[in-house]
């Protein structure tokens, strides 16, 4: 084994160790919370760690087999994050009282007069 190959193996091993440590800390963060938003962000980071782990495995094997899988996981992680963010935003939106909301003034969806989408 040549020196560059040895350096590659050492760096890839270090990357895998960092990913495993980050995963352990991530599980602690998901369990601890304290809010739903913290857990949602942690799940998004979990998707990124899985993608990083597959990238390290692909680099070890020197095979591009995992690249499409990484792309699909990135897409699913993104759409999951957007879905969770929209759910949390809708849940945390303040409820208008006594007819003071945007609908009471004839505004658009965001309360801007005459706005259409």
List the helices and strands and how they pair.
Layout: H1 3-32, H2 36-61, H3 67-92
Helix pairs in contact: 1-2, 2-3
Explain this structure to me?
With 117 residues, the protein is mainly α. Helix content is 70%, strand content 0%. The chain has three helices and no strands.
Summary tags:
single chain; 0% strand; elongated
End-to-end Cα distance, whole Å, is 62 Å
What value does the average pLDDT take? 82
**Extended strand count:** 0
Main sheet summary: none
**Computed structural class:** mainly alpha
Give the DSSP E fraction (strand runs of 2 or more residues): under 5%
In a nutshell, what does this entry contain?
With 117 residues, this protein is an all-alpha fold.
């Amino acid at each position: 084994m040549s020196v560059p190959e040895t350096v590659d193996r050492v760096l890839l091993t270090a990357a895998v160790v960092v990913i495993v440590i980050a995963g352990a800390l991530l599980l602690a963060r998901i369990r601890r919370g304290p809010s739903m938003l913290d857990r949602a962000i942690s799940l998004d980071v979990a998707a990124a760690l899985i993608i990083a782990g597959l990238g390290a495995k692909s680099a070890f094997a020197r095979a591009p087999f995992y690249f499409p899988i990484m792309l699909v996981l990135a897409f699913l992680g993104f759409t999951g994050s957007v879905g969770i963010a929209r759910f949390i935003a809708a849940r945390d939106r303040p409820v208008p009282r006594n007819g003071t909301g945007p609908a009471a003034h004839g505004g658009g969806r965001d309360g801007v007069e005459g706005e259409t989408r």
